[in-house]
Write a structure and sequence with these properties.
nine-stranded mixed sheet, kinase (chains A, B, C), about 50% helix, ATP binding (chains A, B, C), EC 2.7.1.50 (chains A, B, C), UDP-N-acetylmuramoyl-L-alanine:D-glutamate ligase, ATP-binding (chains A, B, C), homotrimer
């Protein structure tokens, strides 16, 4: 897509979230800063209706309960029916059996278009041996590129593995994105925010592999620009929002650092 | 009221909230920055008791569930019994039938002193044809001034419609407030924050129309001052809190931009 | 402990929280800024498992429900079994009977290693006459030093009372900490954040009285440094995170202001 940010800002799609209580505010705000409209509605009675008027659904299991998982599945089914893209952020998979089981339940109950997680979360989803330290990745034995490709192939979806280098694969194409800054890991929530942005870009770009690559480049560039001005996580977070809101396609293009394998 | 901010800061009223999980932190912080004391307690077993020691109740249906609506009604009934002002922020009414039904259930179960929403939320509550895009207003066919007046008259309450121009009416008096800055719409939560501040001012001013007008002028002036210093939503939000905390009645008065119709 | 911060940053312990929806984001972020890894998982089905891989458990009853209290007790029991330290932040005890009852239920169902609260919350827990204005302390009749000592003695735990002067006692030793700045009280959440940090330091220091004293000195010094740069609660909060992340044991030591009684 030629000008993804311009397209997003002109379209102003509604991005429905069923997400976690830790980063819910940041998911909403980053969606807004990129130019889309966030909404968060997790009541069983309305979640399908809200999905029905939305252009993407982002589900994030960070503070899951059984009830929330049910609502995520109801919402994903509503999205599937309309062909609305569904993003799953598999927060904490690999930390407890319950998370592993609930992520599997979602994947087996509805079509997920984009699966996102850190290296150990995605490896665990792919059936590899992996442990997540709460919501923090630990090193994995398997080759991350192969893990992403294999999961994307077996689930017929796009897989996004975030880490020092981000990997994106739809089973056929695979990108590595090197934008970003370590300060993005010094605050809580940048991973969750990335899922919201992926949902936003995917709502205006049916090539989800491309939408995820654009997300990680654009958000990564904003992170690099914010890091250059900041002196710690407090100033970094503030400047991150300014930089995101002030991004343009023209500004980002020469700074994009990705590779197609 | 002559010096609403001074009065609020000397009184330090307790403002009880049953609100949404997206902006709950900002509702608490802005209440504190204006000089009141926020509390958020949504358990069915204690919500009436907490309302009993509070000077205002703010209910916000942004992330409603059936259980939360029940607790809002229990709390509102407790507030009604003591004559404590109740503010309803009708977030997302017009987006799903469930929201419309739950807002109606609240209004039919308890006395709400101040109804607040954006143009399409309030229009929908007033029985007009209106659709809300998630939690974002869309344009309405009806005349907003007539909508506000009619709803205030039929519900015997104060109605606050926020937008580029804010409209406040108790059915007899109607104010238009022009303070504020478009940057307030660039971050999530300023609408919810306004409801918390309305509750705060209403707790020390039995003229709720006046309390709502003061809120939107004072908060709007803080937004204007913060916007002048900021370069994006991150710096804006930070300065907004500084400006609110550093407001005085003397500083705001010459900057108030409102009209009584 | 000689270099608590260096130790914490090298260990990177996982700190499990079951906390409130108002300050959950700040609890996570401050844990990260100090160098530990936060996780928040309140589902009944996984809370014991998540506690099992954590190095401390922080429970905070700010927005309690009966269901959350059950999960806190399940988690605390799991922590007790492994000898993992448990911190209880008794938010709002003294405001409603339900809070008083639920805090008592936790304390009678599991071993709590560190009880934290403001003056009226702790006094109420200790059986004194005390009222909390929502989550805000009110003045108490009893001598706070005696209250802290007596509760620590009767519960065989460490008690932390926060206020203008912080009191820490394990029944034998008692510290008074004078670090901190009034601006810490101008924003919502610094009390909750302190509980998260106490859990972090206690996870690497079996002397919990010492860990709590270190917390209040280190966090207090960061607050003093941030206050010196800030012009209101917005800039203060931003700088607080920067200062915490940039603390070192060497920087804090000459600024620590505490007394052992």
């Amino acid at each position: 897509m030629k000008d993804p940010l311009k397209t997003l800002r002109e379209t102003r799609p509604l991005i429905h979230h069923i997400t976690n209580w830790v980063t819910i505010y940041d998911c909403a705000n980053i969606t807004r800063a990129f130019g889309a409209l966030p909404v968060m509605a997790h009541a069983r009675e309305e979640c399908a209706d809200m999905t029905g008027i939305a252009s993407a659904l982002v589900i994030n299991i960070g503070t899951l309960t059984s009830e929330l998982i049910d609502c995520m599945i109801i919402s994903a089914a509503a999205a599937n029916k309309k062909g609305t893209p569904v993003v799953l952020d598999a927060v904490g998979v690999g930390a407890t059996k319950f998370r592993d089981d609930m992520a599997a339940k979602i994947l087996n109950s509805a079509r997920v278009d984009i699966i996102k997680g850190n290296y150990s979360e995605v490896a665990k989803l792919a059936g590899e041996h992996a442990q997540t330290k709460g919501v923090e990745a630990t090193s994995i034995d398997a080759d991350p590129l192969q893990v992403a490709k294999a999961l994307a192939g077996s689930r017929s979806c796009t897989v996004v593995m975030t880490g020092k280098e981000d990997i994106i694969s739809d089973g056929k194409r695979t990108y590595i994105v090197r934008n970003g800054h370590e300060r993005m890991g010094s605050i809580v929530g940048t991973g969750c925010m990335a899922a919201s942005i992926i949902g936003s870009f995917a709502s205006v770009n049916s090539d989800h592999c491309d939408a995820a690559k654009d997300t990680l480049c654009y958000f990564g560039v904003a992170g690099e620009l914010a890091a250059a001005k900041s002196e710690g996580p407090g100033t970094f977070k503030m400047y991150l929002y300014d930089e995101v809101a002030n991004l343009t396609d023209e500004k980002v293009k020469p700074l994009m650092d990705f590779e197609e394998l």
